[in-house]
Amino acid sequence: MPENEKKSEESQPLPLSYPEQPSQTSHSLKIGRKTLEYHVTAGTMPFKNPENAEIEAHIFYVAYTLDTPEGNPKRPLMFSFNGGPGSSSVWLHLGALGPRRVKMLDHGGMPAPPYELVDNPLTWLEHTDLVFIDPVGTGYSRATKNEHNKKFWGLEGDFKSVGEFIRLYLTQYSRWASPLFLVGESYGTTRAAALAGQLIEKGIAFNGVLLISTILNFQTARFTVGNDLPFLLFLPTYTATAWYHKKLPDDLQQRPLADVLAEVEQWLETDYNIALMKGDRLSDNERSAITQQLSHYTGLSERFIDHSHLRIEIFRFCKELLRNEKRTVGRLDSRFEGIDALPVSEKPDFDPSLTAIMPPYTAMMNQYARADLGFKTDLEYETLSFKVNKEWDWGKNGLPDTSELLRSAFAKNPYMKLFVAQGYYDLATPYYAALYTLHHAGIDPAVRGSIHTAFYEAGHMMYIDVPSLKKLKTDIAGFIGAAL
Fold this sequence. Notes:
Blueprint: H1 3-10, E1 23-31, E2 34-48, E3 55-66, E4 77-81, H2 90-97, E5 100-102, E6 117-119, E7 129-134, E8 142-143, H3 149-152, H4 155-172, E9 180-186, H5 187-198, E10 208-214, H6 229-233, H7 235-244, H8 250-253, H9 257-278, H10 284-298, H11 302-307, H12 314-320, E11 328-329, E12 337-338, H13 352-355, H14 358-372, H15 386-390, H16 403-412, E13 417-423, H17 431-439, E14 451-456, H18 466-483
Parallel strand pairs: 4-7, 4-9, 9-10, 10-13, 13-14
Antiparallel strand pairs: 1-2, 2-3, 3-7, 3-8, 5-6, 11-12
């Protein structure tokens, strides 16, 4: 296509079909002996160019409130989003926080279709009003022209648009006086940390920020030559995965997981860290000792580890651990097992923990939005947009780090509380990498007591596992109460 024709196509308005007004519905949910009477508003917020007032995008949201559709201004209000980049908010929405949830198998596996949406007595609505935000290009949110996508599909544009949505929502629904909370998952934690630091300049201070499956510093997850951090920080999750699949030696396999991980953490901070720092200066005896211990902690063969130069890349681990059984392990949740076309290939064909959740969540969100919430559109609900992810602008060096903005938020708002939730079987955002980032963020000792961490024997979306969902609700209820 000629360049001038391509530009002309990008500048044409897109055929977007949205209801003229947000839909409003009323529902009830029984929790124990009490009943929650709640209201749901599902609609889009126009995002305007401040210079010419042109609408450049529509941001889809679903808001849950008690008392009235606008909500009680004295009641806590929590804004929620997921990550990707390119993910809609459906995972937190219909997985943990909302009053309805997708019914999965108890450990989080895919049930047989057709899928089902059930009441969620573990909803966070019991403690706070909820607003779920789909960033531009996800869910039903769209730019009005293709050329506008680049304004939203990058770090700064993303922070700006989601932050502006929050400001507009507080204004239009008169919620500036509400206690405010922010919850993000995965890349959504990157966004949440940035917004906590940036929105305070607009007068928006959060009582609490919740980071679920955290990644703030992307250097901790980029397996590249010369960057040894991921090889260190992923090790405890490799151990947890091997422990779950019973691939560790008996002296480790028969101990509680938390005890085993504490031992591994100590070893990686000392011997393993020193060994990687030495590089090719390691003696043969030193290299042999590290190889043996790394094999002991991962369940992988010494030959594989030696041929990997003592550095285990994530996808090679996912393929290698269960290779003899002709199975792979998941990235989002390493409890899950996959079947590849060829057991001899180097990396998995797909992530079995992602394919287990995509159909149920996508189907139920489409059904729920139209049938229950009355939001009628023929647009495709983009549960997870790989186009957004592929075209994302990661900034100058491609390794964003918003931990400084989180530190800044604490410095400017010493009343803010932070909750960090991590799954032991999460290979997308490993728990030890999250802890490493927090320990290196330079947060002042005076406010470190405001940081609370919790760990779950599940993966990235720990809430798909019913015991972890229950624990998460208990932990969050305590956190919100303390933050108020």
